[in-house]
Amino acid sequence: DTVVLNYALTLEHLENTFYHEALSNYTQDDFTNAGLPEWARGRFVEIGAHEQSHVDTLTAVLGDAATQACEYSFPAHDPQSFAALSQVLEGVGTSAYAGAAQYLQSSDALTAAAVILSTEARHAAWVASAIHLENPWSGAYDTALTFNEVYSLASAFIVSCPDSNPTLPFKAFPTLTLGDGKPGDSVSVAYANDTDASGDMYIAFFSGLDKTFVQVTDGQVTIPGDLKGTVYAVATNNATAATDDTTVAGPAILAFPYGPDGNLLD
């Protein structure tokens, strides 16, 4: 369980630092002047306290084996971009715990992961619905992500880590970028320079328990028309499988917010 718990702690350090830095930089006036509700900052302070508690709990469980916080760089430069990134990070946190829980051996560790997961999901739902007036969920099921998929997303914010931190047995995939578009649109597909994208390539779209595969043709892919909410996408060299062995880039995070009538928002 030590590796899985340190993986979770790595994510909690990232989230904890994100809230601590942003809430130190932006005052109540900054939030209201940015058009956010008067009560928004207070709720974000609560979320930040939750993340600090998660760090403290996991650190206490791991003891001397606990990984330490890294140096991070977050693309949040005002309260609005902070709130947007908060929604992304809380969603990734939910997917991370959903994917990792199966590897925990201890019932106590599994219970701890379960109650942290549910809290992360509440955070994501609150930011989406109360702050952004969007759907608080993407469907009947959250999307579980693998260790490597989550590590790939987290590594985008990590600048450096202490040499004393334990080495985690995970890798970051090259970056995948999909052009702007909505479900049903054909969008561009771009990979990082070091990506081996030779041969037939497919984009696998993850939504809940479903994975939909679409072949890349002339550098373009058509986004499936039935997707809604938060969707993760990876590039894979297999038409029916998107595993750590077949993934060559990603994940990319796609957002298709929708209203209570089920229709996509403009």
Characterization of this structure:
There is one protein chain. With 266 residues, the protein is an alpha+beta fold. The chain folds into 2 domains: 160 residues, Up-down Bundle (Ferritin); 81 residues, Immunoglobulin-like, CATH 2.60.40. It has a 4-stranded antiparallel sheet with strand order 6-5-8-9, covered by helices on one side. A hairpin with a 2-residue loop joins strand 5 and strand 6.
SSE map:
Blueprint: H1 2-25, H2 28-33, H3 40-62, E1 71-72, H4 79-100, H5 107-131, H6 147-155, E2 158-160, E3 176-178, E4 186-191, E5 202-207, E6 210-215, E7 220-222, E8 229-236, E9 247-256
Antiparallel strand pairs: 1-2, 3-4, 4-7, 5-6, 5-8, 8-9
Helix pairs in contact: 1-3, 1-4, 3-5, 4-5
H/E element order: HHHEHHHEEEEEEEE
Question: Given the structure, what is the number of helices?
Answer: 6
Using the alpha-carbon principal axes, give the shape: globular
The CATH superfamily of the largest domain turns out to be Ferritin, core subunit, four-helix bundle
What is the count of β-strands? 9
Name of the CATH class of the largest domain: Mainly Alpha
The CATH architecture classification of the largest domain is: Up-down Bundle
How confident is the prediction overall: mean pLDDT?
A: 96
Structural class: alpha+beta
Biggest sheet descriptor: 4 strands, antiparallel
Which ranges are low-confidence, i.e. pLDDT below 50, for 5 or more consecutive residues? Answer: none
